[in-house]
Specification:
The chain has 366 residues and is α/β, with parallel strands linked by helices. It has helices at 2-19, 71-84, 101-108, 128-143, 179-187, 213-216, 229-242, 260-269, 281-285, 288-297, 312-323, 347-365; strands spanning 59-64, 86-92, 115-119, 149-155, 159-160, 168-169, 192-196, 248-250, 273-276, 302-303. Helices cover 38% and strands 12% of the residues. It binds zinc ion. Residues 63, 65, 92, 95, 152, 307 line the site of zinc ion.
Length: 366
């Protein structure tokens, strides 16, 4: 019995020495020294890791840019698209610091079947006469150069700063001066793809309560001298209401992943609004059940988009989220500390998201 007690005492001592560090800093918690930006956890769970090399249905990507710098890169991109299952890709000329639209048209001409080009509004002359000229230019881009839409316009508070070659500083989407352009786009059946605001975390205090802190801190929006989140949403809603014959595609879930009921209410109210899921994988996949429910409910109004380069792996990361039931995985390059999970979308929803809805728009909107 004595021997047994001694044995237990030794075990207790050993256990204690394993649990607490020795020496002066016996009370220090090593986790106190880890910065949030360095948090890089490795999943230990024995969970399914599903590889989706090719999309279940051939995709129409409604949101990308002129990433390819030469013909070889465009050809390589087409190879990747074939590999992962992308039929064609929308190239948004606005928001891309690069060559003029005419040059983009020329560069992608040999791959006409695989890329559709979207052009910009011209804000170089904001007088009434200047806007009429801009309308004529839009018509020329559409009729002669094959532009199928306008985008990506972008307003993070200071106006449409995405526009090229002239920024639309202080020109918000509900500005009466550009109404003729928006209506012209509607008339020409050119949808307008628009990026409004940024994810909500970027507007909140950069403190310990900010749920998106590790990303938000470098992506922060300073609204001191410009429109804030809600004011921007108001401008977008005004544009939807005032231009019922123009189709708007709100990029990136309208940067409203944090409030899907609010996003759904807008879709309910405005039939001229669609949204794309581009570049918001982490912002949606950390709330997989709510997002899944949302995508099922609004399955006729959501579009696939990437907005993130030309690599096969980039596409595959998105497929994993949309198609699988995998859970609790990290994708550090999205910039957050959140674990993500797949949506496991039903086939008919996946089909509409990947191509069905885009096909309908292309048919109706040329
Ligand atoms: Zn974009």
């Amino acid at each position: 019995m004595k021997k047994y007690c001694l044995f237990l005492a030794v075990i207790a001592l050993l256990t204690a020495s394993c649990a607490a560090p020795k020496g002066e800093n016996a009370s220090a918690n090593p986790a106190d020294k880890i910065l949030l930006k360095d948090f890089n956890p490795i999943v230990v769970n024995n969970l399914p890791v599903t590889k989706v090399d090719r999309a279940k249905y051939t995709i129409i990507d409604m949101h990308s840019h002129d990433y390819a710098v030469n013909q070889e890169e465009i050809a390589q991109w087409v190879k990747v698209m074939d590999e992962v299952g992308v039929e064609h890709t929308a190239i948004m000329h606005c928001s891309w610091i690069g060559r003029p639209f005419e040059e983009v048209v020329e560069a992608y001409a040999p791959f006409k079947e695989r890329f559709r080009l979207w052009c910009c509004f011209d804000y170089s002359d904001m007088s009434e006469e200047g806007i009429q000229k801009a309308c004529a230019l839009l018509e020329r881009y559409h009729n002669e150069l094959g532009a199928v839409g306008v985008g990506e316009l972008g307003d993070k508070g200071e106006g449409d700063t995405y526009a090229r070659p002239v920024e639309g500083k202080d020109i918000h989407i509900d500005d009466p001066r550009i109404r003729p352009l928006i209506r012209k786009a509607g008339e020409l059946k050119m949808p307008i793809s628009i990026h409004i605001a940024e994810p909500y975390w970027m507007y909140l205090p950069m403190d310990e309560t900010n749920d998106g802190l590790v990303n938000a801190v470098t992506w922060h929006v300073d609204t001191t001298n410009c429109y804030g989140y809600n004011k921007l949403m108001e401008t977008f809603e005004n544009a939807l209401r005032e231009n019922p014959n123009t189709l708007f595609i709100a990029c990136h879930y309208l940067n409203m992943n944090h409030d899907l009921p609010r996003l759904g209410a807008l879709l309910d109210k405005y039939p001229n609004m669609y949204m794309d899921i581009s570049a918001r994988v982490a912002e949606s996949a950390h709330t997989p059940r709510a997002t899944r429910e949302f995508l099922i409910k609004y399955q006729d109004r959501v579009l696939f988009g990437t907005d993130n380069g030309m690599e096969a792996d980039m596409y595959r990361k998105i497929f994993r989220v949309l198609e699988t039931n995998d859970e609790h995985f990290y994708v550090p390059e999205y910039g957050y500390h959140w674990a993500l999970s797949g949506f496991n979308l039903p086939d008919e929803v996946l089909y509409k998201l990947y191509r069905g809805n885009a096909e309908r728009i292309i048919k109706e909107y040329k």
